[in-house]
Amino acid sequence: MKNMKKIEKELEKIEPNAGGLFLAIGIIMVCLGVYVWFHPVDTLIALALYLGVVFVAAGALYLYIAFQHNSSWHLALGLLDLLVGVIFLSNLGVTAASLPIVFALWTLFVGVIQVGEAFYRKSVSYPWGWELAFGILGILFAFLIMAYPGIGAFTITMLMGSYIILYGLLGFIEYAALKKMRRK
Q1: Which one of 1, 10, 29, 72 is at 20 to 30 Å from 22 when CA atoms are compared?
Q2: Contact assessment for residue 137 and residue 111, using Cβ atoms and an 8 Å cutoff
């Protein structure tokens, strides 16, 4: 009963539209990940632009969620996504050349934030296992990309696409969990 009170209190902080925002982020990221998989040669050049726009949009949405719900985790994720997006958009040529390392660093930071958020969610009896799993996978992807940045555009874009899809799937999971919790 005590845990249910905690969950209800946490849910009261979340705006009714937040689930839809998580779903929107998920859809955007999954679509981007699939695109990356099927256009490996063009990706390193064009990805700087596409990722820049998506990261700015995702950062803005996460900042909105953060300010609406006083969430430091979403604030950190929003600022990180916004910063990465602006960097990608400001110098496309340099970004394309250094994209694997920049992407690996972003993946590492997001993975660490997700692991921290998972432990916070666990402390308030909110579904947390998927967040932890995706955070750990993100950290592993980051180290894999940093260890082998020269293995070619195809492999790098496959890893990028895979992690972006995982990042998007987490949005679907957050949407479904929030929807399920609201029904109870």
Answers
A1: 1
A2: yes
- Pairwise CA distance, residues 110 & 29, whole Å: 14
CA distances from 176 to 19, 46, 130, 161, 183 (A): 8, 32, 12, 23, 11
Collapsed DSSP state (helix, strand, coil) of residue 152: coil
* Of the candidates 35, 29, 60, 10, the residue with the CA atom closest to the CA atom of residue 134: 29
What whole-number distance in Å separates Cα of residue 99 and Cα of residue 59?
Answer: 19
Does 152 have pLDDT greater than 70? no
Q: Does the pLDDT of residue 140 top 90, yes or no?
A: yes
Instruction: Pick the closest to residue 138 from 168, 98, 96, 172 (CA basis).
Output: 168
- Segment holding 79, helix H or strand E: helix 72-90
Neighbouring C-beta atoms of residue 61, cutoff 10 Å = 21
State residue 149 phi and psi, 5-degree precision. Answer: -70, -20
pLDDT at 65: 92
Q: Tell me which amino acid residue 35 is.
A: Y
Q: What gap in Å lies between CA 171 and CA 173, rounded to an integer?
A: 5
Record the tokens describing residue 60, joined without a space: 């803005």
The tokens describing 85, both together, are 């997006």
Does residue 1 surpass a pLDDT of 70? no
**pLDDT tens figures, 5-22:** 666 666 566 666 677 888
